[in-house]
Amino acid sequence: MIRATRTLMIIFVLCLLSVTITGAAEKKTTSKSHEEEVTLTNINTASDTALRSLPGIGESNSLRIIAGRPYAYKEQLKTKKIIRESVYNKIKHLITVGGGKD
Q: What is the pTM assigned to this prediction?
């Protein structure tokens, strides 16, 4: 009886460990695929609506971005004082100027 109980406990622990390991592996895969799904917004061609979908960009920031076009580098949003640095830091990984000059 003790041997059967011990065997069942070992099986239970092994099952629990396999579920934990599988769950951790799934999390890594999910975050990797999430990074691949990010679509960059081109600040030289994006519509007002597309710009407003970026975090921290409202109507006034969107209109200033459009009025300041064209941009050679995305950092010009900061250097030309189009948007605050804190807003730029939220969106810098989501925007591009096209042409590989990011």
A: 0.63
